[in-house]
Design a protein that fits this description.
- By secondary structure, the chain is of the alpha/beta class.
- The chain contains 10 helices and 13 strands.
- The chain has 2 domains: 13-112 and 159-276, Metallo-beta-lactamase, Chain A (4-Layer Sandwich), CATH 3.60.15.10; 292-353, Arc Repressor Mutant, subunit A (Orthogonal Bundle), CATH 1.10.10.
- Helix content is 36%, strand content 16%.
- The strands form 3 sheets. A 7-stranded mixed β-sheet has the order 1-2-3-4-5-6-7. Strands 8-9-10-11 form a 4-stranded mixed β-sheet, with helices on one face.
- Helix 5 (121-134) packs antiparallel against helix 6.
- It starts with 12 loop residues before the first strand and ends with a strand.
- Bound molecules: zinc ion (2 copies).
- The site of one zinc ion has 4 residues, from loops.
- Residues 34-264 form the Metallo-beta-lactamase domain.
- It comes from Streptomyces xantholiticus.
- InterPro entries: Metallo-B-lactamas, RibonucZ/Hydroxyglut_hydro, Sec-metab_biosynth-thioest, WH-like_DNA-bd_sf.
- Residues 1-21 are annotated as: Disordered.
């Protein structure tokens, strides 16, 4: 995800009307700044859409925000998670402990959570090192992973014990919320089980359009979400996360919500227009990539040559790994479209335009 200038002067809590509030929960040491956690009143108590990063400051902010809304963590009835990332799902376990709330998530992201909890760090480091090697990463980039592996593979992996959800979000179905119509819309791409949640109720300020959409990281007003690979060591199928993402964008564009309530930045109108912008952005990115592929390149070489928010030399280690994953998702898309292919001749893989 591209960093953004977060609006530091925005209030902690915003009343969006019709029993919906947003709470700005800080993400420590992250240019994204905040997660917008949403609070939805229901007939059986308040429900959270996402919870925020597992950090003491975030927890205190969440608690203060709930108090400002006239409720408390103990009163939370349920937690609906848009996707498994730690800035969304991090505090879910603590909220459940304090309140007895249920936690709902799409099955594909629940699988990621289960895998993360059970991950044997050494196997995970092996998987990452192998993947980077096949992508043509230089030895200097892979060496720290091998060193961690040799040291026993302990520690260093964040969010190893995210909470297991106890309810499944089923695409297309209404969630079981007393007095509210909240329908799950499966929007894979950013993660395999990302969901948007469509509040199928008249807009409280009478804006035209179909209700409101909690869009998670799928649709944001000023930044594009990271689209990488799904990173499943056990799955050898050639998934196409960018293709999934573009399909998911069209899906939410067709909903034509009157207002979008995203998990970062700020709420906005004009969903269909934002969808068109993002589709054009990725089309442009793919065209730029195709031009690079006049000569065969490894995913690492492609990442080095792609446009990022700063020069490649200034991109830190961890972000380079993420950038390569993003380059690979775009390369796979081009292959699926029949516009590029993998050259014969082993590893690392090289892609060329056709
Ligand atoms: Zn995310
Ligand atoms: Zn996020």
């Amino acid at each position: 995800m591209t960093p953004t200038t977060d609006d530091a002067s925005a209030p902690l809590v915003r009343d969006h009307g019709g029993g919906v509030h947003s709470l700005r929960v800080p993400i420590p040491d992250n240019p994204l700044g905040h997660t917008l956690v949403h609070l939805l009143d229901t007939g059986r108590g308040p429900v959270l859409v996402d919870t925020g990063w597992d950090d003491p400051t975030a927890w205190d902010t969440l608690s203060a925000g709930l108090a400002a809304c006239g409720t408390s963590v103990a009163e939370i009835h349920g937690v609906v998670i848009t996707h498994h990332h730690p800035d969304h799902h991090g505090l879910s376990g603590r909220v459940r402990e304090a309140s007895g709330a249920w936690i709902a998530m799409h099955a594909a992201d629940a699988t990621v959570v289960r895998r993360t909890r059970e991950a044997e760090p050494r196997l995970w480091l092996d998987y990452l090192a192998g993947k980077l090697e096949r992508a043509g990463a230089p030895e200097a980039h892979i060496a720290p992973l091998r060193a961690a592996r040799a040291a026993g593979g302990s520690g260093g992996l964040p969010g190893l014990r995210p909470a297991l959800p106890d309810r499944e979000i089923v695409p297309g179905e209404l969630l079981d919320l007393a007095g509210r119509r909240l329908r799950a819309v499966w929007t894979p791409g950013h993660t395999p089980g990302h969901v948007c949640l469509h509040l199928e109720e008249t807009h409280p300020a009478g804006r035209t359009g179909n209700g409101r959409l909690f869009s998670g990281d799928h649709l944001l007003p000023g930044i594009t979400p990271h689209i990488g690979l799904y990173e499943d060591p056990d799955d050898t199928t050639m998934t196409d996360p960018l293709g999934d993402y573009l399909d998911s964008l069209e899906r939410v564009g067709r909903l034509a919500p009157a207002e979008v309530l995203p998990a970062h930045q700020h709420s906005f109108t004009g969903a269909a227009e934002r969808v068109r912008e993002l589709l054009a952005h990725h089309e442009q990115r793919l065209a730029g990539l195709l031009a690079l592929l006049a000569e065969p390149l490894t995913p690492w070489q492609v990442a080095e040559r792609m446009e990022w928010n700063r020069p490649w030399e200034q991109i830190p280690y961890g972000s380079r790994t993420i950038a390569v994953s993003e380059a690979e998702s775009h390369l796979r898309r081009l292959v699926k479209l029949g516009r590029a292919e993998v050259t014969a001749g082993g590893e690392p893989a090289r892609y060329v335009a056709v």
